[in-house]
Here is the input.
Amino acid sequence: MRRWILAACVLLGAVPAVAAEAPPALQPPGARLLFTAEASGVQIYKSVAEAGGAPHWVLQAPLARLTGDGGRIAIFHYAGPSWEAADGSKVGHDPAVPVISAPAPDPADIPWLLVAVTDDPAPGLLAQVAYVQRLATHGGTAPAAPPVRPDTLVGVPYTATYAFLARAP
Here is the structure.
């Protein structure tokens, strides 16, 4: 019975499907979902070599465009991590709170995340956002082949669903 009620709520739009998919570790207590957006972009990796060692890939930053609500939501995602809406509102990782990670169901995909963000005092789409979840990822992992030389940059395509959450009232 409970599954039927949840399925009905999802179909009616009362509970977005991605909120139900997030592992418990990525669900902040009492937070409420504001909206979701679909991301398409790249994870940028840089080849680094320490003290004469072989170069390896290190994540530098994401670079993605998020859209949702029939095109009415447009958000840019970049280093920080940060999210900036077309209306100028912006949130970024709160450095006082560690990012929580959970493995994606497919190891070929980047992990799912919960990022606590600093509130944006300016009005706009992101003004109430306290947390951002990265879910339903596809792609984005570092190249399998090691880099040939240091300082090479590569962008690895990825997609994900981002859920923007407010603190509990």
